[in-house]
Write a structure and sequence with these properties.
Length: 210
């Protein structure tokens, strides 16, 4: 992970995701890999235990103050400090794009998942993500068109699915997030799971089972 401690030190909140789907997935003993401040864990209503790991110590300290109910551990995602088959669910939200060995990360996640445990993964959809960056720059909702320099593994729906399958996890679901005009056009919910939506979404959500 490149400059992760500096990155998490600057985070003021946490990136959004589909919290209805996350709550349906994140049950039992849950691990958040690359948890930052731990905000995603705090949104889980169905978890019996919430554990977050992150190499960014500054973010963890801030997170512990905001979400004292979470367990925070400073650790490297390539070497998770847990026994095999420990967690019912692992969530990894907007993190895999920051690592240079995504397959090794996924294999380590698989190791700590219990049999039939679930992985909830979210990542930007490249190169489509750059179109959204341009649109926000034109609208002046962001200062420049520059891509996030900490994104070093740029995945799309197909490459993300292939990486997960190579780690011997079984893909259960792919869902599009942040489609153009999604707030003003009445898309059917089922459309978010279609190939066309997955091709044009800003972000992709993937759920896989061990």
């Amino acid at each position: 992970m490149r400059n992760w401690n500096n990155y998490t030190a600057k985070i003021q909140g946490f990136t959004a995701t589909d919290y209805d789907l996350l709550n349906k997935t994140g049950k039992g003993v849950v691990l958040d890999v690359g948890c930052g401040l731990g905000g995603h864990l705090a949104r889980l209503n169905t978890a019996s235990l919430r554990v977050g790991i992150d190499p960014g110590l500054s973010g963890l300290k801030r997170g512990k103050k905001r979400f004292p109910e979470n367990i925070f551990i400073c650790a490297n995602a390539y070497r998770l400090p847990f026994l095999n088959d420990t967690f019912d669910t692992v969530i990894c939200i907007d993190v895999i794009e920051h690592v240079d060995q995504p397959l090794e990360l996924l294999k380590e996640i698989k190791r700590v998942l219990k049999q039939n445990g679930l992985l909830f993964l979210q990542t930007p959809n490249y190169p489509v993500k750059r179109i959204y960056d341009f649109w926000h720059w034109v609208r002046k909702s962001r200062k420049n068109f520059r891509d996030d320099p900490t994104h070093i593994t740029k995945l799309n729906t197909l490459s993300l699915k292939n990486h997960v399958q190579k780690s011997d996890l079984e893909v259960q679901l792919l869902k599009a997030r942040n489609l153009p005009f999604q707030l003003s056009v009445p898309f059917k919910r089922s459309f978010l799971y279609k190939k066309l939506a997955l091709s044009f979404a800003q972000k992709i959500i993937l759920i896989a089972r061990k």
